[in-house]
């Protein structure tokens, strides 16, 4: 009977060659030798082992579906069915990761085919676990981590943040005429959704109303004056700036800047040409309102003065007891001469006599005080022509 002296390990030694010698007790002793080969049978005592504990795979952005992105490999030290390995995707630790729609694995050889086109801007990288199991009974399993990195493709043009291009009115930059060369007028701000070299931006002045007056710094988008301003420079300028990335092929976008030259920042902003009629109408309405207000104010002031004059006249009449008072003021000399001699060249004075003792303001009589014109030779005095 042959018994092992220790536990056998097929993975350490699968075969033993034993020589058995049989000797009798005679003289001389005779012996016989027998060679026996012992094969150690396999039991499923080894789990599959991956060649790496983790894998990093790279897939280009905008890849075609069913693209082979890499593979994993595991081996089993057992034999037969115990060494046959099958692969599978394990549930992701992130429940929001749609792993079943991203990748699949070949159960027989461990190859991984992206199921759909990947977008770097939406999903830059993701990771999951793969499992390897043998066909033993019971089956033994192991797992490995797989990380997939999406490589960026230059599929996004630059996006301009300032000046905004979707507004109803263009953004206008004010530039004083006293500005020297190198004066900062504005700055174009842009971003790119790509990464790395595909997101490196450069700026270029594409068009200008007056070439040579403005320049754009290529690395930061600053718009500056290239020379001092002169009186002959136009008041309005339109600049077109080109923004380009460094991808292959390069993508670009353009932006329009409007620059208005002013004498100083205290100068009011000039309206655009399309707003001029509305502004003129508003100015005319303002003038009408000012004139109307002035007329109303004048009428009110005249009414107040008339009221004060009447009150003073009544007070003076009460104090004088109805005596006649002769005002010193004169009426305007634009009355028509009844004698047919044309307009009067001299002013007239009137003597006003008021009745006393009564509370009314009735006139007693009113007669003109007419100077004696010697040159006319009429010889009539003013008392012959009483008015009342």
UniProtKB/TrEMBL annotation:
Protein name per Swiss-Prot or TrEMBL: Cadherin domain-containing protein
GO cellular-component term (any): plasma membrane
Species annotation: Microcebus murinus (Gray mouse lemur)
Topology within the bilayer: Single-pass membrane protein
PANTHER family, sorted: CADHERIN-87A, PROTOCADHERIN BETA-10
CDD domains associated with the record: Cadherin_repeat (cd11304)
GO terms, biological process: homophilic cell adhesion via plasma membrane adhesion molecules; nervous system development
Subcellular localization: Membrane
Keywords for the protein's UniProt record, in alphabetical order: Calcium, Glycoprotein, Membrane, Repeat, Transmembrane, Transmembrane helix
Residues spanning the membrane: 287-310
GO molecular function: calcium ion binding
Cadherin domain span: 1-50, 51-160, 175-275
